[in-house]
Hints:
Distance between the termini: 37 Å
CATH class: Mainly Beta
Largest sheet: 8 strands, antiparallel
Number of domains: 1
Radius of gyration: 19 Å
Strand order of the largest sheet: 10-11-12-13-27-23-22-16
Low-confidence stretches: 5-18
Strand content: 35-45%
Mean pLDDT: 93
Helix content: under 10%
CATH topology: Beta-galactosidase, Chain A, domain 5
Amino acid sequence: MLFGNCQMSAGKSGISSKIVLTPVQLANNYIVVSFLPELGAKMNSLKSVRSGREFLYRLPDRPYRRAAYGASFAAYDTSGFDECCPTIAECIYTGHGFAGRKMPDHGDLWSSSWDYWAGDRGLFFETQGKSLPYRFRKSVRLEDNVAILAYEIENTGSGEFAFLWSAHPLLAVEASCRIVLPGEVSRLFVEWSRGERLGKFGDSCDWPIASCKDGERVDLSRLRPASAATADKLFASRFQHGECALCYPQTNEAIAFHFNPHDVPYLGIWISQGGWPSPERGHFTVGLEPCTGYPDSLREAIHRGSCDVLRPKQKKKWALRIEIQSGDASFAAR
């Protein structure tokens, strides 16, 4: 278990200063993982010891800054692996008991400072919800080439509420990368697609070969260069095997995500090939985002019945296993 310093930029209007963050790390002979408790307990680094590859995306011109509650996620570093809860998209809550309450962009957790401590079996993080009354906990431990993240949310209030959680790992990519989804996935829900090339919100498209509105047939599973200037947010749902991966043929590696589809029944897929936030400032990244509800808006998820409900004092637990593999994703043949 390692502790160190990380320089974070602060200030605005030309005024700059340095704030020292304290990353907390776990390491073994296979992987090194680092978190920033003061920045939403963000996983800011995930490296392979064998190859030295950094699997998480980071923009060099986007320094770490503390975000005010309710801030726009896109205005900050947009990097690494954040937690989104109780929503992904900003919206107004419509459920019983908290109707009219504003749910912030990408949820409460990414802009919160978390408590943390180290134990014999790893790292432990905890914070309190702000938009709704809940306690959120995350623990992390390493087993060989796997990082195991265990989650718990507890309703600390006196009334029930709906929520969704989404992992939000933004992955470093290259044009040769390949996305692997559960073998039974053949259709995806369209949350957003730049220029509506795959359709508008609520449409669906085929996976992996999709038809664009201009008639082009494109293999969504194989990344193109950032010059493609595309960006798409899609969802897969109700699959039998809770697993997905991003493969790196150049180094014969893959990062795979494993989860129980009974607890985490949806998967968000974010593919930005230079098309977001704009073609001029486009990010080149993939997000493989296991989630407990969809689409991005909690309000819409409540309407569709595609999110969880927590009764007073009730807890929900789930886990996510992140595996660094040598070779192609081992479940690709399913």
